[in-house]
UniProtKB/TrEMBL annotation:
It comes from Asaccharospora irregularis DSM 2635. Gene3D superfamilies: 5'-nuclease, LOTUS domain-like. PANTHER family: HTH OST-TYPE DOMAIN-CONTAINING PROTEIN (PTHR35811:SF1), SLR1870 PROTEIN (PTHR35811). InterPro entries: LOTUS-like, NYN, OST-HTH/LOTUS_dom. This is Uncharacterized conserved protein, LabA/DUF88 family. It comes from the Bacteria.
């Protein structure tokens, strides 16, 4: 299969020379960088540290004078060159390296034209630029990764088949998403499938549509598959070289829990029982009970779906559970 061709564009005003090796190593996982350009004012003495790194890695420096003090003049040069390269149709993707949110619009425009856009920047990179990319990678994270690690496989994450039209730029994305949130998203993906089984690549690409800066290295893992193995509600299935994921279905029978719940409420008579106390009793009996395993987002929703139970607020506006009808 032919490798994707990328245009690598680096903003030297916002990126340190210490990241060069990591940038080139990372982009090589996705394809080959046919354009390698870096933009800055090379007449400045502060730019001299770049000389050896550019020669060793065959990166072409593009001179951009600082016409106005305090203004980042490299932005416009990078944007113009990116659009020129786009119109040549000589690449399938762009890697924009900057910690500056000024490239947000550029990333969105390139994606509109079907380009795969990978962003790289420091942890300080603003959220708008992160989520405008198909994939955003923290340079700090690359430096912190063990040199011997394999890194995250783009094939595992399904990037080669990423559908731009389905991309969801969710601006609520945080710098590091909790494991619980990721696990819940995967459960939703699995639940949407008739057979309850999803390929590893589809899980990776679906997660990146919602969380472009999701990276398993944030959690101490080198591969998506290794990360998923540690999530207790998921089970990995290997068939030859193919890996798929399904729920680790240790759910307690719902009818059993419903019966136990109804009996607790009945035992309280007309006084009912506080919703929180009822939840604690169920958890004490069934340690692995989780309402999300049964398709509910809240415990109160689960209780409301039990036909003979109702939830009402007392005089102190606290929620209590009662038996419906004459037994209340």
């Amino acid at each position: 299969m032919e490798e994707k061709r990328f245009a690598l564009l680096i903003d030297a005003d916002n990126i340190s020379v210490k990241y060069v090796k990591y940038i080139l190593d990372e982009i090589s996982q996705y394809g080959v960088a046919t354009y390698k350009r870096i933009y800055g004012d090379w007449t400045e003495t502060t730019s001299s540290s770049w000389k050896d790194a550019l020669l060793e890695n065959s990166i072409n420096p593009v001179q951009q004078f600082s016409y106005t003090r305090g203004k980042n003049s490299t932005d416009s040069a990078m944007i113009i060159d990116a659009m020129d390269i786009l119109y040549t149709k000589s690449v399938e993707g762009f890697c924009i390296v900057s910690s500056d949110s000024d490239f947000t619009k550029l990333a969105s425009r390139l994606r509109e034209d079907g380009m795969l856009v990978i962003g790289m920047g420091e942890e300080k990179t603003p959220k708008p630029f992160r989520v405008a990319c198909d994939r955003f990678i923290s340079l700090n994270l690359l430096m912190d990764s063990d040199i011997g690690e394999e890194g995250i496989s783009p094939k595992e994450l399904g990037l080669s088949n990423c559908n731009k039209e389905e991309k969801n730029n969710n601006l609520s994305v945080g710098t590091i998403i909790t494991k619980e949130t990721i696990e819940e998203e995967i459960i939703k993906i699995i639940s949407s499938k008739e057979n309850g089984v999803v390929g590893l690549g589809e899980i990776g690409s679906t997660l990146l549509k919602k969380y472009p800066d999701f990276d398993v290295r944030n959690y101490g893992y080198s591969l998506l598959s290794k990360f998923l193995v540690e999530l207790p509600r998921l089970k990995m299935i290997k068939r030859g070289k193919s890996i798929s994921v399904e729920r680790n279905d240790n759910r307690i029978n719902k009818n059993e829990i419903d019966t136990y719940t109804i009996n607790i409420v009945k035992s309280q008579g007309r006084d009912g029982i506080f919703l929180g106390e009822l939840g604690n009793r169920i958890h004490n009996k069934y340690k692995n009970f989780n309402v999300r395993d049964y398709g509910y987002s809240k415990f109160s929703k689960y209780i409301e779906e039990i036909d003979c139970l109702s939830i009402k607020q007392d005089s102190n506006r606290q929620k209590k559970v009662f038996i419906k009808g004459p037994e209340k």
